[in-house]
Amino acid sequence: MAGMVVRISSRVKIRLRRLRHKTSDKGLAMRCQIVLHAAKGWSSRKSAEAVGCSRSWVSRVLVRFDEDGEAGLLDRREDNGEVKVDADYLQRLYEVLERQPTDYGYSRPTWTRELLVRVMKQETGIAIHVSTMSRALKRIGARRGRPKPTVRCPWPKTRKKRRLRAIARLPTSCPTDEPVVHAGEVDIHLNPKIGLDWMNRGRQKQVVTPGQNEKRYLAGALDVRTGELICVEGAKKDSTLFLALLKALVDRYPTAARIHVVLDNYRIHASEITKLALQEFAKRIVLHFLPPYCPDHNRIERVWQDLHAEVTRNHQCRDMRDLMKNVRAFLRKRNATRRKTRRQLAA
Length: 347
Hints:
Blueprint: H1 10-22, H2 26-39, H3 44-51, H4 55-68, H5 87-97, H6 113-124, H7 130-139, H8 157-168, H9 170-173, E1 180-189, E2 215-223, E3 229-234, H10 239-252, E4 259-263, H11 272-280, E5 285-289, H12 300-312, H13 320-346
Parallel strand pairs: 1-4, 4-5
Antiparallel strand pairs: 1-2, 2-3
Helix pairs in contact: 1-2, 2-3, 2-4, 3-4, 5-6, 12-13
């Protein structure tokens, strides 16, 4: 079969080329290509190397084409019987992945494909192979990633939802001349945060760390309506840093009767020093505290994530001065982009 030559008409060649380009089935496209190669007189070895398969598979494709013509190139697995992994199975698999193996009586806390096969057989009565489970996971868009650690909010659900709804309504319920900002702090470490990165197979990138760590802190306030960020820097994350941010807000919005600040329950936000300072601001600053352990509802946290991704993660700065220069450049560029976007929308 290594020297088998397939003779086909020009019309069939055109149809095979058209089918190869239009189909989304990679296997069908490869089978079309094998036949076209054979029509040119290619050997099975050369064709196998070109499409990336075995010589025996090339031979089987050519035999099927010789016996059944173009119909022999189609996938025959549809004749195997009723499809096991249907829409209902995939929906049930999605629901199972939302839970943990311990919910189904297993001691293992994380999923494996083999364990998913076993649990899905218990839940649906359908037994599939591990490789089929891999395809099913791909079809529902599942991925194998690192879970996010979190702490449960101690508040009752009704109280938590009520507070979050009130905070979400602030931008529309407050007068337009009263700014609404989300405030928070972020740590900047000279020793870089190590994060995922692309690298060549068999190679592992190295991130040189200074060894002796240094820290700087940023306190920021994200204007919900404009998207701009007001930031101050400090050597310590204490009440003084937070008060510097509040003063920066008062200076930034000199005509605002009140400035609404959404923030978490970090201790410097409710210290005695902060309470005294709020009295000096003549009630121009109004603090709106989020429920405990709800960082995802503070919009500034996304800005800090972008800062780490764009600047601090895997950085190569040798001293804190260079690192902070990059941090400031990122923040300036971000604010400039927001101002440009607003001008374009207003034009």
